[in-house]
Amino acid sequence: MIFEKQDYQQECINNIITLLDGFDFKRHDALNLKDCLSQFHAACEIPVKNLSGKLNVDVLMETGTGKTFTYLNLIFALHKAYGQNKFIIFVPRKAILESVKQNIRLTKDYFYLEFKRHLKTYTYEGVKSPSNIINHYIKNQDELSVLLLTNSAIDKEGNILNKNSETLFNTKSIFENIADLKPISIIDEPHLLKGEAFGKYFGKIGTLYFRFGATFAKEKEHALSNVAFCLDSINAFRNYLVKQIRIHSVMQDAQSPFLINADSKSAKIAFYKAGILKQITLSKGEDLGKINASFNGVSLVKTTKDKAYLSDGATLEKASLKLTQDEISTLLEKAIDLHFEKEAFLFDQNIKALSLFFIPKIEDFRQIDNKGAPFIKTEFERLYKLKRASILARENLSPSYREYLKRDFDESGNLRVHQGYFSGDSIALNKGKKESSKENIEANDIKMILSEKEKLLSFQTPLRFIFSVWALQEGWDNPNIFTLIKLANSTSETSRHQQVGRGLRIALNQEGKRVTHGFLKGNDNAFYKINYLDMLVSGEEVGFIEGLQKEIEASSFIGVASALDREILAKLGLNERKINQFCDALETLNAVEFDETNNAYKIIAPICETMQNNEERIKSFLSDEEYHAVLSAFKMAENPTNKRDQIINANQPPEKVKIRQNLAKEFKELWQTINAQSQLSYQNIQKTKLIESIAKAFNESHVMCEAIIFESKRYNPQTNRIITEQSSTLKIRDHANALQKEINALLLDFAKDERLPLKFTLELYNALNKEHFTNSPKKAFKLLKGIIKDKLHENLLSCVSYGFCQNAFFNTAFDKTDPLYFEDGSPKNEIEKHKLGKYKSVQTPSQNYLYETIIYDSKIEEEVSKEGVQKVENKSIEVFAKLPKFKIPTPYKNYEPDFAYLIKDEKGTKIFFACETKGYEKESDIPKDEKRKIEYAKIFFETLSQNLKNAKKEIRVVFATRINKQDLLSALKNALKETP
Which residues belong to any copy of the Helicase ATP-binding domain (predicted)? Predict the structure, then answer.
């Protein structure tokens, strides 16, 4: 398995190292930590800034984003930065502990290469464990080591760790001796470790601890606080770090309406219309004909908590939570179909597909006490063999995939593609050799599922269908789970988010490489053709999609595009009255509308722009701080690079927008031209000149000396603030001697972290003022990092080039994934709405706009789409369109112009005008990195125009950025002026 540095994981580590810069690891004082956090939050964009006054530092990371890897990395980083040697990892379940052990084993070589240190691991696993813990973990205090514990190892007075040991030669318990080492603790899945008994014994440690979780408890005492890093579910998805989720609800034919809930006056009823789940709330006396015509004349006459009585004598009840054998069989068949739909394609991509089934009870899969054949296992085998036979009968099946399927049976004729893992299996594994070959096969498969991830992911292993009774929950997941099936309609509080979390991780190929967005060169279509999770549930499990969406929104800290979330507004500091005022104001301003069915405000226009355009009105009831907190949340929500929906209802076809066929024929050449394959390259980079410019800027800057300052502070409970009463400088720190010994290691780390060639880094250092590093190595390296970024950009602008292949402008074929045209070049009739934007306008588009409906992400896009401008000076606009996902590669990620115009002059010469509409008031408001990308885009279009000229094409391509209130004429004039 290949491990790589992920930017977001490194950001988490850097945040923690930065915030602990002033923390005293000898005292482990909560007020000291609070001070560190206050300074860190003042300088860093963190959505949750509430402080607990305890010694916790919290990290929120979505399931599947490498939480365990990150906290193992943190152990090495804290050892390196602050000399910490002793760590404890607390987990709530044995399965999670096994998963952590597996991660430590898999990452051992990676972390040794990074840090040149090994991490010694100790696990409490019973009577024999204490001697190892005492003789090594406790007594060898200089050893970098971690102790793995479940909460049950310490949460009772009678636990072995809470007893004395003669070998320690003192009156303290083993656990108290561990606490004396001042170990730093890491709590994995903190929402499951909030019990009073655990808290009592954990509190004895009294040192800094980290809580890593995708879910945090809502109770104030255990809620998310002291946050160092926040990667919630929505942000993880938008940054292409987890799979998309597609929910399939499988219902029986002619499924009857059923009750969701009721009170004394009304009933909420679910029903299916063309296979799509609908909900309606009916009051007493209302006609059920609203559901379908067969109920005309039938009304609701009486309701109780669990039943609704109708006028024709029928009764509607809540859906059964137990599936019949027919329903299970239908789900199994659909699951096998979904698996095979993607398996051959994934096989060709060198990726093995796995499917995970949650079943009602062990007896459904494993024969217990000779009580008869297990139904689910027997039925799966029957259906699988039928489907496999139909697949093998296909003539166009690839030979290698055919050979893969032939390995489904072993030499004895046993089907080897499926196995179960159930609670207690991990204990049974340790009991030695099994009595029969069947038991040995079972034991080896269980071991593979639990702890041999690489083997399970190999094509050499036929096992790819896994069955469990919720035993595989937190602590177990697999990147190649592509289909997840619920055969048990759970009434437990196991969250839907935790259920889908078993398959959210990005896929791995046979080389152990993650198939990331970057690995696929930023191609959205290619990424989501691989990285999606099919979740299959019974049609009787009402509201699964809505419930999952609400759970994801509740655990996230940005406003979402579908509905206003009161919980998010409350987290941002608004009380109930202000939340109501905010909702009312947005409804009046036509940014939201109330959805009676779902009892929520549906967002129908960009909230951020609505707030900015009506700032005075919103600030009449929100404070300045509240206004900016809410604005920031919606700004993050409304400008994502990834515009895909995180959760898709697979039963419902995606909303589409019609393409105007006559205009599409005109637009084709423009679309094909700007999409011509290009290669970003760098030529004649002047290394010497670059070093000189970096050194000049660095040497002319000032780096202040670090001082040891004595401060006297006190906490004011009335203002909830720490007040500095006295401050004085004790001495100036001198880093000269330490720097002389460590500079080579520091430069090596800097080169690795910034991905710079080591030779370049050493040459650059020789040109720098060494006094800056003596004053403060940390400040000097931070300054250097920023200067390198600026100067590299300036240098690259003169060196970057875009190359187009020779026949780029003569190839008339289209890719089959093209959103606008078929492979033969004929225009498609419609395009999926999400490829153009989030919001649908009621306004009528311009007559020369490519689509029949305006879809937009910002108000300026809506305005542009309905512009009736037909002529610009002596030039006519033939057709224009909002562009579906058009990207230009730049050294600073991709740049995405959003509109393109086909313009003709009096002589019939074509001008292709690409434009990005910016919702900024003036050009100076555009962020620095965005300006850089614009400069590269200009080079791209200049090069494209020149290449067209060289290819004897009578086409001119121009580009401009159009600021909020700038009209089309001035934007085009500027572009024609700037582009030769």
Answer: 48-234
Strand ranges (E), 853-894: 855-856, 871-872, 875-882
229-272 pLDDT per residue, tens: 999 888 899 899 999 999 998 876 556 677 878 888 888 887 76
Q: What is the pLDDT of residue 491?
A: 46
Q: Identify whether the C-beta of residue 961 lies closer than 8 Å to the C-beta of residue 916.
A: yes
Question: Using CA atoms, how far apart are residues 5 and 70, in angstroms rounded to an integer?
Answer: 10
- pTM, entire model: 0.78
**Distance from chain centroid for Cα 598:** 26
Distance CA 436, CA 323 (A): 34
Name 57's Cβ contacts closer than 8 Å, sequence gap at least 6. 16, 19, 20, 33, 37, 208, 209, 210, 211, 226, 228
Take residue 647 and report the two structure tokens written for it: 């959760």
pLDDT of 436 reads 47
Contact 890, 896 (CB under 8 A): no
CA–CA gap between residue 821 and residue 659 (Å, rounded)? 10
Residues lower than pLDDT 70 in the chain: 1, 252-256, 272-277, 319-321, 423-446, 450-451, 470-476, 489-494, 542-543, 558-561, 597-598, 636-640, 707-731, 806, 918-921, 964-969, 977-980
Q: What pLDDT shows up at residue 132?
A: 87
Annotate 406-454 with three-state secondary structure: HCCECCCCCECCEEECCCCHHHHHHHCCCCCHHHHHHHHHHHHHHHCHH
* Helix (H/G/I), strand (E/B), else coil: 10: helix
The single-letter DSSP state of residue 254 is T
User: What's residue 430's pLDDT?
Assistant: 52
Pick from 291, 224, 174: nearest CA to 51: 224
Pairing of strands 955-963, 418-420: unpaired
Q: Are 600 and 564 in contact (CB under 8 A)?
A: yes
Cα angle for residues 86, 87, 93 (degrees, 5° grid): 150
d(CA 980, CA 977): 7
Q: Which of 1, 521, 6, 548 is nearest to 244 (CA)?
A: 548
Burial of 555: CB neighbours in 10 Å, binned 0-12, 13-18, 19+: buried
Residue 305, C-beta contacts closer than 8 angstroms, at least 6 positions apart: 262
Pairing of strands 315-317, 839-840: unpaired
- Exposure letters 888-904 (e unless 16+ CB within 10 A, then b): bbbebebbebbbbbbbe
Q: What are the residues whose beta carbons fall under 8 Å from the beta carbon of 496, sequence distance 6 or more?
A: 544, 547, 548, 551
* pLDDT tens digits, one per residue of 116-145: 999 999 998 777 778 889 889 999 989 999
H-only helix segments in 133-264: 174-180, 196-202, 233-238
Beta bridge partners of 277: 272
Burial class (CB within 10 angstroms; exposed 0-12, middle 13-18, buried 19+) of 13:
buried
Q: How far, in Å, CA of 151 to CA of 196, rounded?
A: 11
Torsion of CA 139, 143, 148, 152, to 10 degrees: 20
Rounded to a whole number, what is the distance in angstroms from the first to the last CA of the chain? 50
CA separation for the pair 965, 920 (Å, rounded): 9
Q: What pLDDT does residue 580 have?
A: 93
Element containing residue 262 per DSSP (H, E): strand 258-262
Element (H, E) at 602: strand 600-603
**Cα–Cα distance for residue pair 344/388, rounded to 1 Å:** 12
Distance of CA 940 to the CA centre of its chain: 31
In angstroms, the CA 394 to CA 976 distance is: 57
Q: Are 418 and 467 in contact (CB under 8 A)?
A: yes
